[in-house]
Write a structure and sequence with these properties.
The protein is mainly α. It is built from 3 helices and no strands.
Length: 49
């Protein structure tokens, strides 16, 4: 949840990240969130099998 909070808080405060091209800081924050979300979804998928 921390990665999601970091991502949403940064986006709310960063005009560049509100558009189509995120800032350098935002890229790393958003990529971390996506990576963790993908891992979570993969674990969920494995548990359902």
């Amino acid at each position: 949840m921390k990665a999601f909070e970091d991502s949403t808080e940064h986006t709310a405060d960063c005009p560049a990240c509100q558009g189509e091209t995120p800032c350098a800081v935002g890229v790393s924050i958003h990529e971390r969130f996506v990576r963790l979300q993908d891992a979570y979804r993969e674990r969920q998928s494995q548990q359902q099998r």
